[in-house]
């Protein structure tokens, strides 16, 4: 039986990356795309790595982000443009597989099972996809490779940006078991608290 090959492609800091593509000068500064520019009410929808390094988190209020990073540049969202960029991203992915499952505006799963004769080994095609998206669209993307969607998504969340990672079943013990339990896909903060009460931390 042929082993499944699943890729998970996830654009890095998508909204913020689009804004930096439109205005390259923003790349030099910490920026956050926020849903409401009123400082007391808006929240951070996305941030770049410079903002992340200052402790800015997605989902927090703008005033909280500003406390951590006073020089944070606030950018209002441009959803129509994000949709256009997302569609271009998906078009590239569909050149490699007729089984593409869009998971969100900036991420998708590709079933690449049985395509090696067309595109080569999974690692090679993952790098090709990653590089094409950067060169043709101007965004960086992480690509995770495994035999199912959960492991492929976990792999794409490893070190960022612009990288390819594998997490095959034989790599789970080395690459996955040591991770904090909160890194497991679908485990949120409330579940982390409950697991930690039980002494489960990794």
Give descriptors for this structure.
202 residues; alpha/beta; five-stranded mixed β-sheet; three-stranded mixed β-sheet; 8 strands; globular
Structure in words:
The protein has 202 residues and is an alpha/beta fold. It contains 9 helices and 8 strands. The chain has helices at residues 14-22, 49-53, 62-68, 79-94, 116-119, 122-137, 149-156, 172-175, 189-197; strands at 6-11, 31-34, 44-47, 73-75, 100-104, 107-111, 141-146, 164-166. A 5-stranded mixed beta sheet has the order 5-6-1-7-8. Strands 3-2-4 form a 3-stranded mixed beta sheet. A hairpin with a 2-residue loop joins strand 5 and strand 6. Helix 4 runs antiparallel to helix 6. The longest helix has 16 residues, at 79-94. The two termini are 33 Å apart. The model has no long low-confidence stretch (mean pLDDT 92).
- Summarize the biggest pleated sheet: 5 strands, mixed
Strand content: 15-25%
**What portion of residues is helical?**
25-40%
H and E string: EHEEHHEHEEHHEHEHH
Separation of termini? 33 Å
State the helix count: 9
Query: Total strand count, please?
Result: 8
Query: What structural class should be given to the helix and strand makeup?
Result: alpha/beta
Note poorly predicted spans: none
Q: How do the strands of the widest beta sheet line up side by side?
A: 5-6-1-7-8
Task: Using the alpha-carbon principal axes, give the shape.
Answer: globular
Taking Cα atoms only, what radius of gyration do you get, to the nearest Å? 18 Å
* Mean pLDDT rating: 92
- Oligomerization category of the chains in this entry: single chain
């Amino acid at each position: 039986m042929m082993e499944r090959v699943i890729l998970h492609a996830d654009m890095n800091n998508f909204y913020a990356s689009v804004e930096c593509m439109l205005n390259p000068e923003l790349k030099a500064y910490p920026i956050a795309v926020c849903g409401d520019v009123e400082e007391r009410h808006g929240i951070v929808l996305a941030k770049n790595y410079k903002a992340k390094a200052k402790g800015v988190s997605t989902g927090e209020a703008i005033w909280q982000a500003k406390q951590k990073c006073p020089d944070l540049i606030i950018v209002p969202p441009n959803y129509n443009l994000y949709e256009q960029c997302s569609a271009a991203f998906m078009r590239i992915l569909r050149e490699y597989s007729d089984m593409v499952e869009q998971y969100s505006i900036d991420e998708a799963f590709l079933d690449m099972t049985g395509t090696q004769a067309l595109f080569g080994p999974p690692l090679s095609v993952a790098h090709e996809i990653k590089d094409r998206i950067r060169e043709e669209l101007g965004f960086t993307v992480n690509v995770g490779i495994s035999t199912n969607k959960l492991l492929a998504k976990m792999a794409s969340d490893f070190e960022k940006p612009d990288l390819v990672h594998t997490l095959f079943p034989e790599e789970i013990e080395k690459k996955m078991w040591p991770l904090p339990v909160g890194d497991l896909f679908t485990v949120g903060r409330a579940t982390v608290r409950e697991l930690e009460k039980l002494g489960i931390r990794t």
